[in-house]
Amino acid sequence: MAADVRQGLWDFALRLYGAPGISDACLVLQDESGVDVPVLLFSAWLARNSVALSPSDIARIDGLVQDWRNEVVIPLRAIRRRLKNGPYPAPTDETETLRNGVKGVELNSEKIELAILEAEGQALMDAGTLTGDATGNLRAVVEFFRGAEPDRKAATALAAIENALSAL
């Protein structure tokens, strides 16, 4: 059953990402396969709205957010992760406060990316040009970022997300 198109991508992403085990599955795909989680969540949102994505659609859509991700999101993530164990004087209570602040800024940067993706997705839904069997959206995104079929670990993470999506 299609999701209510009035549910925005941000709310949908929070709901899916917050489902049991999904944050871990997304992080596996991000860290092991180079998947951009906002693009993955976007593809799930489109799947819920019966909008199928081809590999060329994914490449075009990724091109809309690639610079933002590479120049803003990824550097913020790297700083947040680095502050977990260093450099000196980290980790301390004070640097943990800084790390949490960076985490908030990182989340806001992903929210901006999701807003860009939502506008594109809404245009696709309004145009109706890509509607159809969208069950392969998530797998297509993983293959796009991996440049290959999912390995066993990625396939397990992908299956967890697909199961959670069908249960929403």
Could you outline the blueprint of secondary structure elements for this entry?
Blueprint: H1 9-17, H2 22-33, H3 37-48, H4 55-83, H5 93-127, H6 137-146, H7 152-167
Description:
The chain has 7 helices and no strands. It has helices at residues 9-17, 22-33, 37-48, 55-83, 93-127, 137-146, 152-167. With 168 residues, it is mainly α. The protein is globular, with a radius of gyration of 16 Å. Mean pLDDT is 92; it is low at 1-5. Helix content is 73%, strand content 0%.
Summarize the structure.
This protein has about 170 residues and is mostly helical. Helix content is about 75%, strand content about 0%.
**How many strand elements?**
0
Number of helices: 7
Portion in strands = under 5%
Q: What is the SS-derived class?
A: mainly alpha
Give me the Rg, rounded: 16 Å
The run of helices and strands is: HHHHHHH
State the main characteristics.
168 residues, 7 helices, mainly alpha, disordered N terminus, 73% helix
